[in-house]
Amino acid sequence: MTDEQFCIQTTIQIVSVLAALILAGLAVWGNSIRAKLVGPKLKLKLFDPEGERIDLTDGSQARYYHLRVINERRSSQANNVRVVLTKVMRPAADGTIPTESLTGPVQLIWQHGHSMPQYPRLRDAPKIISFSFSDI
Questions:
Q1: Residue 68's closest CA among 131, 135, 117?
Q2: How far is CA 23 from the centre of its chain?
Q3: Quick one: CA torsion of 70, 76, 81, 85, rounded to 10 degrees?
Q4: Which CA distances in Å does 63 have to 2, 43, 52, 66?
Q5: I need a labelling partner for 123 at 20 to 30 A (CA). Which of 28, 39, 45, 78 fits?
Q6: Which pLDDT score is estimated for 134?
Q7: Are 105 and 86 in contact (CB under 8 A)?
Q8: pLDDT (tens digit, 9 = 90+) per residue, 15-62?
Q9: CA dist 17 to 21, 23, 24, 29, Å?
Q10: How far is CA 68 from CA 23, 46, 48, 76, 127, in A?
């Protein structure tokens, strides 16, 4: 065997081993790699940071906030989309912004939720969620 044949054979074996390692890695971590590279990319946008002030029937006031959920990677559909509120941060009278703990996560309701599934799919059209705070 000449030196040239040895180099070619060694190169082919190295490429084969690397290809096998890459395929093994894709088999183990393929779903997470695919989700990061080509999976849906969801963003939340608040319509108005001040909210919409509403007078309730008992004389108290509430603020309604509307969130828009957008899939920025339209080539990939997001399945079972939901928005969960885990904590609330509101400015206090002294200017600080304390975190108010909730007893548990609160799932927000989609706008027109009576005519759409609880966990919708999201591809092109943005979906809107509304929620309110009544002690303002």
A1: 131
A2: 29
A3: -50
A4: 82, 22, 5, 10
A5: 28
A6: 62
A7: yes
A8: 999 999 999 988 888 777 777 777 888 888 888 888 888 888 888 888
A9: 6, 10, 11, 18
A10: 39, 6, 11, 18, 6
Q: What is the pLDDT of residue 135?
A: 57
Task: For the chain, give the number of residues.
Answer: 136
127 token code pair: 């979906």
Closest CA to 108 of 124, 126, 91, 132: 132
Strand partners, 70: 43
Taking CA atoms, 4 is separated from 1, 42, 76, in Å, by: 8, 54, 48
